[in-house]
Write a structure and sequence with these properties.
By secondary structure, the chain is an all-alpha fold. The chain is built from three helices and no strands. The protein is elongated and about 65 Å long.
């Protein structure tokens, strides 16, 4: 029973982290395509620096967006692999029958 609760909690946490990470990546992509919502937090300083280096900065920021999306997808995938591996693993001698 406890092992099943741990598996459920891990899965819920991983999917929550993945969803928040995906939202974070989508927000960054939104800013890159011209959206302005919440951009006043750091956008003015970035905008001034970006003008002379626009192509390189845009390429770097798109790489960051894809990295964020990749990390967001990694949490649920890692937990799913862990759960699949531990579900088929033999129980240690002391845990059989429980």
């Amino acid at each position: 029973m406890r092992r099943e609760l741990t598996r459920t909690a891990a899965s819920t946490a991983a999917w929550t982290i993945g969803a928040l990470g995906a939202l974070y990546a989508v927000l960054s992509a939104y800013w890159l395509v011209g959206g302005g919502w919440l951009l006043n937090t750091f956008g003015t300083s970035l905008d001034r620096w970006m003008r002379p280096h626009e192509l390189f900065v845009l390429a770097g920021l798109w790489l960051i967006v894809f990295a964020k999306a990749g990390v967001a997808a990694a949490a649920p995938l890692a937990v799913n692999r862990w759960q699949a591996r531990t579900a088929t693993a033999p129980k240690p001698e002391g845990l059989r029958g429980s």
